[in-house]
Design a protein that fits this description.
heterodimer; A: about 300 residues; mainly alpha; two-stranded antiparallel sheet; 4 strands; about 70% helix; about 5% strand; B: about 240 residues; 6-stranded mixed beta sheet; 4-stranded antiparallel beta sheet; 10 strands; about 25% strand
C-alpha cells in the first residue's frame, strides 16, 4: 500500500532531499577525513548563512547570496584557526564536545541577534519564485528541487575532479587515508585542513541558500534537524570514506523523502521513527557502514 | 670523515616516564651509508622519528646540514631534505602506483619532476609496468620498492630507511639491498635501521648498535664476519 503511494513526484522530491543531504554529507565528510572531527556545528554554519540571507533580503539576490557565502566562509575559517587547528591533536571526543559547544554558542548568538518584537524568525524571501512548480514530463516539480539536484551534481562533480586530478586533491585524499604518513611525505597539514574547511564552508553556504528557498522562515534551530539526520546518514554510509559518507547522506535523504511521500498526511509524524528504525537495522547488519568496502588483507 | 650532514647530540626521547632513547650522539657524513641496529625496543625507530619531528625531544639537539631541527614540523623536515621510508611501508593501497609516487613529490623543492619519476621507474621497472595499478595489489617486495621510490622522488639529501626488509621473503630482501646498493652509487646519504645485523654491518660504512635505548658500540664492515664481536655487541 505504501509502495503504491510512491509516484514520480515523490521520487523527484526524494532525490532533491537526498541531493541536499549529500552536499551536507560531503561538507561533514571532508572535514572528518582530514581532522577526524565530527563537526556537529556544521548546521550552525548553514544557519549563519540563512540568517545572512534573511538580514539581506532587501538586497539584490546576487548580493545577498554573495554575503551569505562570505559570512559562512569567514566563519568556517575563523573556526578552523581559533578552534580546530589548536585542538587537532586532541582526542576525537574532545573535538566533538568542542563542536557541540560551538553549535550552542552560535545558536545563542543567533537568538540574541534575532529578538525583535518578541518573536523569533526572519523571513528570507528573495528567491520565492523558485518555489513555484514546473511540469516536467507531466510531473509537477518545484523549481528549487531541480536547481538543488543540478547544483549537487555540479558541486559533487567539481569536487570529484578536484580530488582526482589536482595535487591539492591528491594531498587531501592522502591526508584522509593516513595523515601521519602524508605529513612524513611533506604534505602540509595546515594547507590541507584549510582547504577542506574552505570547501566544506562553500558547501554549507550552498545548502544555506537551498534550504532558505525551501523554508524561508529562518530561526536559531535552522538546519539543526537536517544536520543530525545527515550525521546519522554519514555514519550509516561509512564515515571513513568520503564517497560512502556522501552516499549515506544521499540515501537517508532519499529514503526519508520516499517514506514522507508514501505516508498519509496524518501519519507523517511517524517519519523519524521509520527512518531511525531503518538506521538501527542497517547498523546492526553493517556496523562498518552500508557502503563500506571489505577491508583489504595486508600483502607480504 | 667529511662534515656531518646529520648530527644527533645527547638526544633523549621519552614516552611518558619511559626513556626510549638515552643520551644518543651519532653523526652521518654526506655520502655515507650508516647502519643502526639493535634488538626490538632498542630505540632505533624512535631515533628516526625524532629526526622527522614525529616525537619531541626531551633533551639534546638534532642538526641537519648545520641547522637545528628543533620546533620544525614533520612536513617541514621532509621539505628540508630528509625522506623517511617508514616501517611497514605505509603505502597508500587505494591509490595507484603513480599517485603514490606523486605524493612523494610533496617534499620536492627542485624542478625536474618528470625526470625524477623516470629515474625511479628505471631503478624499479616493475613500478613502471604497474603504474596504473592500485598499490594495494602489489606484492610486499613491490610495495617496498614503491615506498623507497616515493622517498627518492622527493630528491632528499638524506634518506632514512626503517627496517626495509621487514616481513619480506629472503630473495626479496636481496632485491631490496640491491636497490640500496644502486642508491649508494648515486651518492645519496643513508641512515639504515635494520634487524638483519650481519648484512647491515657488511653493507654500511659504519653501523651503530643500540641496546636498551643507549648507544652500545660502533661496528665496521670488517666486524661483519667476526661472530664473537657481533654477538657481544648484541648481548648484554
Amino acid at each position: 500500500m505504501i509502495l503504491a503511494a510512491i509516484n514520480a513526484q515523490t521520487v523527484v522530491d526524494a532525490i532533491g532531499l537526498g541531493a541536499v543531504y549529500a552536499l551536507m554529507a560531503v561538507g561533514i565528510g571532508l572535514v572528518f577525513g582530514v581532522l577526524r572531527l565530527v563537526n556537529f556545528a556544521y548546521g550552525q554554519l548553514v544557519m549563519a548563512g540563512a540568517y545572512t540571507l534573511a538580514f539581506t533580503a532587501a538586497w539584490p539576490a546576487a548580493a545577498s547570496v554573495a554575503a551569505c557565502f562570505a559570512v559562512v566562509l569567514l566563519l568556517s575559517l575563523a573556526l578552523e584557526r581559533a578552534v580546530f587547528r589548536p585542538l587537532r591533536t586532541e582526542s576525537p571526543a574532545v573535538m566533538l564536545v568542542t563542536t557541540f559547544a560551538i553549535a550552542f554558542l552560535l545558536q545563542s548568538v543567533a537568538l540574541v541577534l534575532d529578538v525583535r518584537d518578541g518573536t523569533i524568525g526572519e523571513p528570507a524571501g528573495s528567491f520565492g519564485g523558485l518555489n513555484r512548480a514546473v511540469s516536467v514530463f507531466g510531473v509537477d516539480v518545484r523549481k528549487v528541487t531541480l536547481v538543488t539536484i543540478a547544483v549537487a551534481v555540479v558541486a559533487l562533480g567539481l569536487l570529484a575532479l578536484l580530488l582526482a586530478r589536482t595535487t591539492v586533491g591528491l594531498h587531501m585524499r592522502a591526508a584522509a587515508a593516513d595523515f601521519h604518513t602524508a605529513r612524513l611525505l611533506g604534505v602540509k597539514a595546515d594547507r590541507v585542513i584549510g582547504t577542506a574547511v574552505l570547501i566544506s564552508g562553500l558547501l554549507a553556504a550552498t545548502v544555506a541558500v537551498i534550504l532558505t528557498v525551501q523554508t524561508p522562515l529562518v530561526a536559531p534551530d535552522f538546519a539543526l534537524k537536517e544536520t543530525i539526520v545527515v550525521l546519522v546518514g554519514v555514519v550509516v554510509g561509512g564515515i571513513d570514506r568520503l564517497w560512502t559518507a556522501t552516499l549515506g547522506g544521499f540515501s537517508i535523504g532519499f529514503v526519508s523523502g520516499l517514506i514522507n511521500g508514501a505516508l498519509p498526511t496524518d501519519k507523517t509524524v511517524f517519519l523519524p521513527s521509520a527512518v531511525f528504525a531503518l538506521v538501527i537495522l542497517v547498523l546492526l547488519l553493517r556496523p562498518g557502514g552500508l557502503f563500506a568496502p571489505a577491508r583489504a588483507v595486508e600483502r607480504v | 670523515m667529511s662534515e656531518a650532514l646529520l648530527e644527533l647530540d645527547h638526544v633523549e626521547v621519552r614516552y611518558g616516564p619511559v626513556p626510549a632513547v638515552r643520551d644518543l650522539s651519532l653523526s652521518v657524513a654526506a655520502g655515507e651509508i650508516v647502519g643502526l641496529i639493535g634488538p626490538n625496543g632498542a630505540g632505533k625507530s624512535t631515533t628516526l622519528h625524532a629526526v622527522m619531528s614525529v616525537v619531541p625531544l626531551h633533551g639534546g639537539t638534532i642538526r641537519f646540514a648545520g641547522e637545528s631541527l628543533a620546533d620544525r614540523t614533520t612536513e617541514a623536515v621532509a621539505c628540508g631534505g630528509i625522506a623517511l621510508v617508514p616501517e611497514g611501508r605505509r603505502i597508500f593501497g587505494d591509490f595507484t602506483v603513480e599517485e603514490n609516487l606523486r605524493l612523494g613529490l610533496a617534499a620536492r623543492q627542485v624542478g625536474g619532476v618528470d625526470k625524477a619519476l623516470a629515474e625511479v621507474y628505471e631503478l624499479f621497472p616493475i613500478l613502471a609496468d604497474f603504474r596504473r595499478r592500485h598499490a594495494g595489489a602489489l606484492s610486499g617486495g613491490q610495495q617496498q620498492q614503491l615506498a623507497i621510490g616515493r622517498a627518492l622522488v622527493a630528491a632528499p639529501r638524506l634518506l632514512l630507511l626503517d627496517e626495509p626488509s621487514l616481513g619480506l621473503a629472503p630473495n626479496i630482501v636481496d632485491a631490496v639491498f640491491e636497490a640500496l646498493a644502486a642508491i649508494r652509487m648515486r651518492g645519496l646519504t643513508v641512515l639504515l635501521v635494520e634487524q638483519r645485523a650481519r648484512r647491515t654491518v657488511a653493507f654500511a660504512d659504519r653501523t651503530y648498535v643500540l641496546s636498551n635505548a643507549e648507544l652500545r658500540t660502533t661496528l665496521t664492515p670488517a666486524d661483519a664476519d667476526d661472530t664473537e664481536k657481533m654477538l657481544s655487541a648484541y648481548l648484554p
